[in-house]
Design a protein that fits this description.
- It is a single chain.
- This protein has two domains: 196 residues, 3-Layer(bba) Sandwich (FAD/NAD(P)-binding domain); 119 residues, FAD/NAD(P)-binding domain, CATH 3.50.50.60.
- The chain is elongated, with a radius of gyration of 22 Å.
- It is of the alpha/beta class.
- The chain starts with a strand and ends with a helix.
- The structure holds NADPH dihydro-nicotinamide-adenine-dinucleotide phosphate (NDP).
- NADPH dihydro-nicotinamide-adenine-dinucleotide phosphate (NDP) binds next to helix 5.
Length: 322
């Protein structure tokens, strides 16, 4: 292990819209932030094609371009963006305490404040055909990509609130939606199930799973299998949405930062404060409900403002005590 230790005011972990927005605000507040990108620089948006719902882009923008622009904007104000993975943390529970963070299992950073923006990863089924057609009609975000299938036939997998919500969203814009639920009932709330059952162009197939996604370059169809009878059925579709849950990227904070039972970081009221003084959480890592680039960016802004206020209050207390 190397001996290099670096002391900084504000460390931002993660390079999605939340992390970069926190970086823009923190650098403009002269906190001289250092941002570590993680394994997937740019986050989930780099796996999206067109982003049409982020305000300020009347013609839309492709995800990777938007993330490069966000990085450039953060760097313009002095954020230091580094490629690297935070591998462990030792957080101080003291007000004004210093948090020790290890990057790539070697470099040690001492941070006065931390913004956690490590996001969440969409779960996929794991079929080779599904992986091959990601970006070619297979998506894990109906709100992001549903529009591209306007007036076409699509299918969605999952029986939770996300699947139910996205299925009804798709039913409003697509010609037909086939919803595959692996059990004989949905896990979604009764209210959401009612919305699903009220949509005329939405068919729910219970006890049904994906056997194969059909198509070479783009999705052309779906082979489904009834997991009770093993009977298979093929339908023609242009888009397949996977809505079987997300996994928040919080493993390195377990046992230190307070989380709910699914691993999402708990923040205090409307703020981005975690249970650890000086540690803030923004974006999908603390939001299982909205999960949009714009809401992530909004909470990234809040986290930087919360960090700035925290550091100012620590400094003023130190001045009074001196
Ligand atoms: P959930 O974990 O609640 O549901 C996942 C769904 O996907 C389940 O139906 C599950 O089936 C199914 N599933 C999991 N793995 C597979 C697989 N390999 N093949 C087929 N199906 C699979 O995730 P959600 O994203 O729906 O919701 C996460 C949380 O966010 C929940 O607490 C939810 O209530 C909340 N939420 C709330 C919203 C709201 O209030 N407006 C909107 C969206 C989410 P099974 O049931 O068989 O395990």
């Amino acid at each position: 292990m190397s001996e290099q230790v670096e002391r900084i005011k504000c460390l931002i972990i993660g390079s999605g819209p939340a992390g970069y927005t926190a970086a823009i605000y923190a650098s403009r507040a002269d906190l001289k932030p250092v941002l570590y990108t993680g394994m997937e620089p740019g986050g989930q948006l780099t796996t999206t094609t067109e982003v049409d719902n982020f305000p300020g882009y009347p013609e839309g923008v492709d995800g990777p371009t938007m993330m490069v622009q966000l990085q450039q904007q953060a760097e313009r104000f002095g954020t230091e963006v580094r490629i690297g993975m935070v591998t462990s943390v030792a957080l101080s529970t003291e007000y004004g305490g210093i948090h020790e963070v290890t990057v790539d299992n070697s470099k040690i950073i001492e941070a006065e404040s931390i913004v956690i923006s490590t996001g969440a990863t969409a779960k996929y089924l794991g079929l080779p055909s599904e992986q091959r057609l990601r970006g070619g009609g297979v998506s894990a975000c109906a709100v992001c990509d549903g529009f591209f299938f306007k007036g076409q036939d699509v299918a969605i997998v999952g029986g939770g609130d996300t699947a139910a919500e996205e299925a009804t969203y798709l039913a409003n814009i697509c010609k037909s939606v086939t919803m595959l639920v692996r059990k004989d009932h949905m896990r979604a709330s009764k209210a959401m199930q009612h919305r699903v059952n009220s949509a005329e162009n939405l068919v729910v197939k219970y006890n049904t799973e994906v056997d194969e996604v059909l198509g070479e370059q783009v999705v052309e169809g779906l082979r489904m299998v009834n997991n009770q009878t093993r009977e298979k059925e093929e339908i023609a579709i242009a888009g397949l949405f996977i809505a079987i849950g997300h996994k928040p990227n919080t493993d390195i904070f377990k046992g230190q930062v307070e989380m709910d039972d699914t691993g999402y970081i708990i923040t205090d009221g409307k703020s981005t404060k975690t249970n650890i003084p000086g540690v803030f959480a923004s974006g999908d890592v603390q939001d299982k409900e909205y999960r949009q680039a714009i809401t992530a960016a909004g909470t990234g802004c809040m986290a930087a403002l919360d960090a700035e206020r925290y550091l100012a209050s620590v400094a003023s207390r130190e001045t009074v005590e001196a």
